[in-house]
């Protein structure tokens, strides 16, 4: 891995038995889910774990996210030597992770899955059926292996399992006036709506009078139609993109960016992996999907 990885994750991959997504006995599932004992309907949040402290922080964050979005959670075994942590976690790492999720969200439907094969290929396969892929483990494939190759957003959680995983601050979205902004804004509006949080859209430029590109304003108006409850502000700042987003991550619930122009996390994303004070979401932007849509724009999210 080339980028700094304070909580980047990896996962065990390949074919596996279906996750046992069944609600805890005697507990009602989240709103909108089927009756107790029935499989969850809809794409789940998937969190990749190992036996590290950051992995269990990611499980707590993923449990909150799944509950807010009304879907199930799948805890995915992330390395082939999960037994290393069994002494610290009686019953095994996966069962400990399931317990973390259920203590965090007692009504959440939580399944576990362990797969056997090449890590990156297997995690990409699992991500095909996921709503979000959450990374927080310390060993194995990291964001650069996955961002730009998954059909769902990838979230990197840089947190300890102790205390709150993220504050109830705003969602911050970095835009750069390219076609990747559509995926960034879709993910940002969805996250803000799920948690009833405000959304701040940041465009970082280098001109004498920074301004939000007209097409971004148009997209904000369009996304406000399906998400009328989301309170949106847009800021144009004369700062380096990574600096602007890192400063605003303090007290934020989530920072949302796109991947690099040629895949991976990109220069801004790589900087934020060490500088962000909150979880970092990479929107599912297609490779090569960064054509300019307006003049005077800056590369704020790649």
From TrEMBL:
The lineage of its organism: Bacteria, Bacillati, Actinomycetota, Actinomycetes, Pseudonocardiales. Residues 45-156 form the UspA domain. SUPFAM superfamilies: Adenine nucleotide alpha hydrolases-like (SSF52402). Pfam families: Usp (PF00582). It comes from Pseudonocardia dioxanivorans (strain ATCC 55486 / DSM 44775 / JCM 13855 / CB1190). This is UspA domain-containing protein.
């Amino acid at each position: 891995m080339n980028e700094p990885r304070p909580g980047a994750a990896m996962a065990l991959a390949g074919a596996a038995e279906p996750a046992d997504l069944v609600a805890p006995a005697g507990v009602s599932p989240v709103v909108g889910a089927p009756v107790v004992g029935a499989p969850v309907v809809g794409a789940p949040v998937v969190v990749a774990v190992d036996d590290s402290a950051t992995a269990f922080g990611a499980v707590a964050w993923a449990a909150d996210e799944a509950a807010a979005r009304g879907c199930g959670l799948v805890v995915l075994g992330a390395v082939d030597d999960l037994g290393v942590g069994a002494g610290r976690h009686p019953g095994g790492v996966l069962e400990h992770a399931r317990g973390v999720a259920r203590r965090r969200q007692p009504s959440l439907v939580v399944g576990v899955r362990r797969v056997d094969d090449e890590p990156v290929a297997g995690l990409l396969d699992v991500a095909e059926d996921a709503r979000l892929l959450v990374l927080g483990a310390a060993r194995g494939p990291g964001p650069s292996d996955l961002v730009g190759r998954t059909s769902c957003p990838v979230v990197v959680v840089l947190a300890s399992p102790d205390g709150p995983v993220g504050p109830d601050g705003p969602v911050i979205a970095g835009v750069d006036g390219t076609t990747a902004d559509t995926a960034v804004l879709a993910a940002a509006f969805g996250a803000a709506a799920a948690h009833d949080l405000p959304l701040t859209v940041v465009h970082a430029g280098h001109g004498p009078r920074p301004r939000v590109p007209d097409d971004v304003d148009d997209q904000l108006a369009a996304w406000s139609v399906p998400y009328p409850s989301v309170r949106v502000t847009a800021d144009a700042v004369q700062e380096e993109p990574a600096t602007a987003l890192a400063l605003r991550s303090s007290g934020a619930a989530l920072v949302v960016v796109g991947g690099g122009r040629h895949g991976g996390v990109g220069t801004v994303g790589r900087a934020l992996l060490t500088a962000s004070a909150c979880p970092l979401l990479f929107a599912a932007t297609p490779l090569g999907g960064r054509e300019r849509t307006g003049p005077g724009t800056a590369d704020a999210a790649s």
